[in-house]
Amino acid sequence: MALVVGAIIVLAALSLAFELSRGKSAKRKYMVWGITTMLPIAFVFSWLVALIYGDWIAHDGFAAIGLMMLLIPLFFLTGVVLLLVGLFTKEKQS
Question: Could you list the residue ranges that cross the membrane (predicted)?
Fold first, then answer.
């Protein structure tokens, strides 16, 4: 049940980010996807992956926590980079 709720949250965040960035400039897309990657995706997706790995593959809760401790900063920093690219990208003048 927890996997289903987490998957629904991730899918809802992805669909919301897709809708918010559709038809927008590249600057706006980077900003939307950066914020989406930092907040809902970094935490919930990392939790999902760690839960699946720890429960089904390694059968060890400490492995799940260790993987989550690696994935959250990785995804969060990816979101920060996307947000910064969006903030410092210049709009094309036409």
Answer: 33-53, 65-88
Asked if residues 65 and 50 have their Cβ atoms less than 8 Å apart, the reply is yes
Enclosing H/E stretch for 6: helix 2-21
The pLDDT value recorded for residue 8 is 97
Cα 55 to the center of its chain, rounded Å: 22
**CA angle at residue 76 from 27 to 90, to 5 degrees?**
15
Its pTM stands at 0.89
Q: Which residues, other chains included, contact 48 with Cβ-Cβ below 8 Å and sequence gap of 6+? A: 3, 6, 7, 10
- Start-to-end Cα distance in the chain: 51
